[in-house]
Design brief:
The structure holds two protein chains of two kinds. Chain A is α+β, with helices and mostly antiparallel strands. Chain A folds into three domains: 310 residues, GHMP Kinase, N-terminal domain (Ribosomal Protein S5, domain 2), CATH 3.30.230.70; 53 residues, no CATH class; 42 residues, no CATH class. Chain A is built from 16 helices and 13 strands. In chain A, the strands form four sheets. Chain A has a five-stranded mixed beta sheet with strand order 1-2-3-5-4. The longest helix of chain A is centred in the middle third of the chain and has 15 residues. The two termini of chain A are 34 Å apart. Chain B is an alpha+beta fold. Chain B has one domain: Ribosomal Protein S5, domain 2. Chain B is built from three helices and nine strands, in the order E-E-E-E-H-E-H-E-E-E-E-H. Chain B has a five-stranded mixed beta sheet with strand order 1-2-3-5-4. A four-stranded antiparallel beta sheet of chain B has the order 7-6-8-9. In chain B, helix 1 crosses helix 2 and helix 2 packs parallel to helix 3. The longest helix of chain B is centred in the C-terminal third of the chain and has 35 residues. Classes of the chains: A alpha+beta, B alpha+beta. Chains A and B meet through helix 6, strand 13 and helix 15 of A and helix 1, strand 8, strand 9 and helix 3 of B. Chain B: Keywords: Cytoplasm, Exosome, Nucleus, RNA-binding, rRNA processing. Chain B: Pfam families: RNase_PH (PF01138). Chain B: It is found in: Cytoplasm; Nucleus.
Chain lengths: 438, 274
């Protein structure tokens, strides 16, 4: 964090002014760029820019920061844990006299083996279904973040990577989408590249770009069945979206081929990938999507990840009303406090203790004549009575880096503000829905 | 003449050793407190501050289920190298390191991304507690090492925060308060029963953990310096989330009591000697 947002050249006086205007209560916070506290920076977004990927997106914020995300998928063999292998062969002994252990273990299976294992599978599909689905692994997703000017093992970059990964994996729903059959799965590589220098904390930008890239990700349609070696349809037009969408304009819900969304609300996915929002608090104000300057005076900053689950309404209802008006079913996935760079800002010195501003003299003005004759061994605190005050208390108009943490209620309010109905998360999701997914 | 070429058995009759049966696994009672913590400061003489933390092992019979052991050393405050640019604050560097034998799979000497991630969390938690502007132009390194295996990330982090807080106090670095870490989790036995919130969860004891929350807390200021929540909460309401946070704050307070007690003992010992 500290390294991604260094080189901020604001004097203590400027910081104090910024903090003062952001913590105003009566007219609300006044932000340097004139936004309202919940307003995002305008952005341009496009998807499908990289032809060699399964899905890609680019987002450019108005301040000039720009990120590109490419999603690549590979088929990978699922390793069978040894105890599971034993359990499955024991379970099969009742069905077939010969132990058919090779069907799951080895890639080369005879058709005879396959047949037997197939009908056995159908028998214990019910029982095994839960276990099989549970055998997904978070290793199936690999995420890399690249920020220019930073090493990829820099702690700030690692923190960003783990935060984005955590949001994807927190509810365990995402990896289930990568399950092909018992023996194979998709391995998804997400490569997130910030093209521009990190002008502001890049987390919201990277998260939104990843969101769009995942929405645009398509996987080839599976032609093989059950536990066969996977065979895929060559036709890219028949590829299915990773996040399948229900078509609300036409009633052909069973049609698997993806549609080009003509209108924004035409195709709304049932569930959507997570987004991570950056929220900060200054005084009692909660401010979304802070710029670099605003973050430099934050009292506390929090990254909140939310995802939209399938909406609670039943199918016919959601077909009758347009997708934009359906209420979203938001889930909280992860929350992390972020070390605000304000803790690294230089403190200001109040005039009362600043020798250059004759502050030490003014402290002693009532006894100007005796000040010279004061004993030399007087302690520093007694010499400067204001020094102790500035050390412990805030002086109006003098910047001091925040100490301590955030109040419990403030952290809760920040999260609640993200999740609330009609709140910022919904607004962002609505905005991203307008992006044409190609 | 005695036969000295062979190793003979004992002359008299022997009784084979009889091993006492270990007590059965304690009934999975819902603890209303965190596991017992052993905390000791000043264990590394070469460091300016150090501490060692060990967590009680709830079921010691199980093989490979050992308790969490953490050691932390604080080097500094010391002056920055001449080549470093001016800093108005103390420069805090935190490392969380797993010992090579600390995990089921041996770890190499190089730190991997999860250790770096924990290091950032620890840094965030401590930076709020340390009064950084009292040491311009100086640096401090905090190294937490995890010496034993079998615990998940959040428990390790909360332990790291607690032990680092004690080590910082041992090093005599000014803090606004002793920060302590605590974990609470939303666990469920199976699909039928309603999930419950437990303090300081033992991962092996619970079938599935739905969500967990790790908090670093300053009790006297009533402020949270670091919070890490992940998982999936049923429903979008904030009630469960708030309760989870409250429980982890209680865990923090318990851990903080251990720190304060240990520091008091250290102070008393120091007064007794001099």
């Amino acid at each position: 964090m500290s390294s991604t947002s260094q080189h901020l050249l604001l004097s203590p006086a400027e910081l104090a002014y910024l903090h003062g205007s952001l913590s105003l209560i009566t007219p609300g916070p006044i932000r340097p760029d004139g936004r309202s506290p919940t307003q995002f920076r305008p952005l341009t977004a496009e998807t499908g820019i990289l032809p060699g990927t399964n899905g890609s997106a680019r987002i450019c914020f108005a301040d000039g920061t720009e990120a590109v995300v490419g999603v690549k998928a590979e088929v990978e063999k699922t390793p069978v844990p040894p105890y599971e292998f034993v359990a499955s062969t024991e379970g099969r002994k009742g069905h077939s006299s010969a132990p058919k252990k090779s069907s799951r273990k080895s890639k080369k299976t005879t058709t005879e083996d396959e047949e037997i294992s197939m009908d056995v599978d159908e028998d214990d599909e019910e029982a095994a279904g839960v276990n099989e689905k549970a055998r997904v692994s978070p290793d199936w997703v690999e995420l890399s973040v690249e920020i220019p000017g930073l090493r990829d093992d820099d702690s700030g970059t690692v923190f960003l990577t783990s935060m984005l990964t955590e949001a994807l994996l927190a509810d365990g729903e995402f990896v289930k989408k990568l399950w092909i059959n018992r023996r194979f799965h998709w391995k998804l590589y997400l490569d997130i590249i910030l093209i521009s220098p990190p002008l502001s904390y890049p987390l919201p930008l990277l998260s939104l770009t990843t969101h769009l890239a995942l929405l645009a990700t398509r996987l080839p349609r599976l032609k093989s069945e059950a536990d066969e070696d996977p065979m895929f349809d060559d036709d890219w037009a028949a590829a299915t979206f990773l996040y399948p969408r229900q078509d609300t304009t036409s009633a052909k819900a069973s049609n698997k081929s993806p549609k080009q969304p003509s209108a924004a609300a035409a195709a709304a996915p049932a569930s959507r990938p997570p987004i991570t929002l950056l929220v900060m608090a200054v005084g009692d104000n909660i401010i979304f999507d802070p710029s670099k300057e605003e973050l430099a005076v934050a009292d506390s900053a929090v990254a909140v990840s939310v995802a939209e689950g399938p909406s609670s309404e039943t199918e016919p209802e959601s077909e009758s009303i347009p997708a934009t008006s359906t209420k979203r079913n938001l889930h909280l996935l992860s929350v992390r406090t972020i070390d605000p760079p304000s803790r690294l800002t230089p403190p200001g010195v109040p005039n009362s203790v600043n020798a250059a501003a004759w502050g030490t003299m003014t402290a002693a003005t009532p006894t100007t004549t005796t000040a010279a004759t004061a004993p030399a061994n007087e302690s520093g605190a007694a010499k400067h009575p204001d020094a102790r005050v500035t050390e412990t208390e805030d002086v109006v108009g003098v910047w001091k880096a925040p100490r301590g943490g955030a109040k419990f209620g403030m952290l809760g309010a920040m999260v609640a503000k993200v999740l609330e109905r009609g709140g910022v998360a919904e607004e962002v999701l609505d905005g991203l829905e307008g992006v044409d997914l190609t | 003449m005695a036969d000295r070429r062979r190793i003979n058995g004992p002359v008299g009759a022997t009784t084979p050793p009889i091993f006492d049966k270990p007590a059965g696994p304690a009934a999975a009672k819902t603890r209303d407190a965190i596991r017992k913590i052993f905390l000791k400061t000043g264990i590394t003489p070469s460091a300016s501050g150090s501490a060692y933390l060990e967590l009680e092992n709830p079921n010691p019979q199980r093989p490979g289920n050992t308790s969490l052991k953490l050691s932390c050393t604080v080097h500094g405050p010391r002056s920055l190298p001449r080549s470093a640019p001016f800093s108005p604050h103390i420069i805090l560097t935190t490392h969380v390191k797993y010992a090579p034998f600390a995990t089921r799979q041996r770890r190499g000497y190089l730190r991997d991304s999860s250790e770096r991630d924990l290091g950032v969390h620890l840094e965030t938690a401590l930076r709020g507690a340390i009064i950084a502007d009292r040491w311009p132009k100086s640096g401090v390194d905090i190294i937490s090492q995890k010496d034993d295996e079998g615990w998940d990330m959040m428990n390790v982090l909360s332990g790291c925060i607690t032990v680092a807080s004690a080590a910082i106090a041992d090093a005599g670095i000014d803090c606004v308060d002793t920060v302590a870490g605590g974990v609470a989790a939303l666990v469920c036995k199976d699909d039928k029963t309603a999930p419950t919130i437990v303090m300081d969860p033992v991962v092996a004891e619970h079938d599935s953990i739905l969500a967990a929350c790790c908090v670093a807390y300053l009790p006297t200021r009533d402020e949270i310096t670091n919070m890490w929540f992940k998982g999936r909460l049923p429903g979008a309401d904030m009630m469960v989330y708030d309760k989870l946070m409250e429980k982890s704050l209680v865990a923090c307070r318990c851990a903080n009591r251990v720190i304060v007690q240990e520091l008091n003992e250290t102070v008393k010992k120091g007064q007794g000697i001099s």
